[in-house]
């Protein structure tokens, strides 16, 4: 099988490519140039897809003895991921750029280009598993639950899964590093990248302010009493406790949390922790990893990449909406996040959260 191996310059993608070679596939490595100014992105373990990473990926390809190329997808990345990130925050939502990158770049723009060039599959270093099932290929959680990335892959369709290879899904991370060292790969001890790759210093609020400017507004309680001011509602997210700058405690002395962001009035609403409890999640733009479920189905729902999944009942409507009723409340659920639905370890699909209720 002719396989395109996406090589980020990290240890995971290097070992994934090596395993594809060991499996007898005809492997070609490719590094994605996603930044228009790549030399400025990495600070320690932050960032990815930098000039440094491209060099590391090339060295790994040389060790494996496979052809290697760099493909410039920076324009698509800027439009589909970076600009989307800014627009979502400006609209009072909290997006997940890694999930959007998988949906729009790695398993859309990249996979489409690979297929057009005659490749049969795309290999990545994601921690997830693809298994054969009664309805075709199924996406499952990784063996290493601490590294599991099935949540950010919940946007993949059945057609995309049929061309996806995730060779690391059955392996713990520490074993991957040991394997990289035994293969003579220089990236064996390279730190993992963290946070948002295009915000190198991790200061999301400051990065957004540079692009959106100061937008002063009010911070109020649930009754509408003004408690303070902010310089941009985009700098807050539901569930946030720190950085509210209210200046005085609640009457009962308990901490306040962001409960709601209202972009029309540029208002941030704060209140007690229990007001964050959510029992119903509504979503749109569902992406099913197989056939869409019919009628109410018992699932586990996860709303954060590293959050816990909770028992729930989900139902897809004819108009594309998805309603998820949680068996137990969860806190800090924001519009713009994804709700990913599981049955056991299998990913059924995902939807973008539009609203919640208690």
Automatic annotation (TrEMBL):
Superkingdom in the source lineage: Bacteria
Annotated keywords: ATP-binding, Cytoplasm, Disulfide bond, Nucleotide-binding, RNA-binding, Transferase, tRNA processing, tRNA-binding
UniProt keyword RNA-binding present: yes
Segments forming domain tRNA-specific 2-thiouridylase MnmA-like C-terminal: 282-353
Site-annotated residues for Interaction with tRNA: 126, 337
Catalytic activity: S-sulfanyl-L-cysteinyl-[protein] + uridine(34) in tRNA + AH2 + ATP = 2-thiouridine(34) in tRNA + L-cysteinyl-[protein] + A + AMP + diphosphate + H(+)
Function as written in the Swiss-Prot or TrEMBL entry: Catalyzes the 2-thiolation of uridine at the wobble position (U34) of tRNA, leading to the formation of s(2)U34.
Protein family membership: Belongs to the MnmA/TRMU family.
Name by which UniProt lists this protein: tRNA-specific 2-thiouridylase MnmA
Record organism: Angustibacter luteus
